[in-house]
Amino acid sequence: MNHPDFRYSDSRNPYWKKLKALPGIAFTDNDTETHQGKWREHFDGLRAPEKSTARRELSVEIGCNTGHVIREWAARDPANDYIGIDWKFKIIHRGAEKTLAQGLKNLVLFRAHAERLNYMFGPAEVDHLFLFFPDPWPKKGELKNRFLNAENLRHAATVVRPGGTFQIKTDHLGYFEWMEAAIAEVPELWEVTSRTNDLHVNCPDPTKLKIPEVTLFERLWIKDGIKINSVWLRRR
Ligand SMILES: C[S@@+](CC[C@H](N)C(=O)[O-])C[C@H]1O[C@@H](n2cnc3c(N)ncnc32)[C@H](O)[C@@H]1O
Questions:
Q1: Mutate to test the pocket of ligand 1, among 6, 8, 86 (most ligand atoms within 8 A of CB)
Q2: How far apart are CA 100 and CA 96, in angstroms?
Q3: Which of 89, 100, 107, 178 is the most exposed place for a label (fewest CB within 10 A)?
Q4: Is residue 135 among the annotated active site residues?
């Protein structure tokens, strides 16, 4: 899939067409790769006539679901730009409708495979990258499906600017150990600035944490008493 000649084929999913009917706010499949390196200009268009000359930061969340976290970030931080990516059509469509209803001019949602990250964004275009609770694919035959591997860390490093960040959270200790091994394969690209096996250890009652401090999945794990693993990376 991470090949320059790869093309998404037209989908029969009814939400494929519905997403195409929300241009500017939602992008699907090949359309997510048409603004590579030019997403700030796209946001200028959405924001017009309130365009400002100040440099805005671009934050990208992989596996954003309906965008429950990134919509809240965008609403609280209108000075910066946000993009959420998920491969499920219906939830991205729902997120895009909510984005429109909220009148947000600084958030765009992609229906796309995160493995295509380096075709969606140009070199150093992204300031901050987030990956919260990626599918753990726990069975032996499924491990190859895990997103966080050395290859995708290399692709992520092409789009995140030097000094930019990448935060990852997972409930799954086995996947976390796999992630740390993958990160150790590319020390020239990513520096580990912090890591923990219990993100909320200092919080008196993590069950009281609300979105966007925690994600929807995170709330479920916390309720079940599962500790959250997290690592912060800095692009060298
Ligand atoms: C376990 S859910 C976590 C959702 C959300 N981040 C949260 O913490 O509440 C994983 C999400 O990643 C999406 N996803 C999984 N693999 C993906 C991929 N390769 N590209 C884009 N999205 C993906 C799924 O559709 C799902 O919404």
A1: 86
A2: 6
A3: 100
A4: yes
* Residue at 57: amino acid letter: E
Say yes or no: do domains 1-121 and 123-236 share a fold. yes
Residues 188-200 have pLDDT tens digits of: 999 999 999 999 9
| Domain at 1-121: CATH architecture | 3-Layer(aba) Sandwich (3.40)
Residue listed under structure tokens 């690592």: 231
Which residue out of 135, 198, 205, 224 is catalytically annotated?
A: 135
The predicted pLDDT at position 24 comes to 93
Q: Where are the domains of the chain?
A: 1-121, 123-236
| 50 Cα–ligand 1 center, Å | 33
pTM: 0.98
- Tell me the CATH architecture of domain 123-236: 3-Layer(aba) Sandwich (3.40)
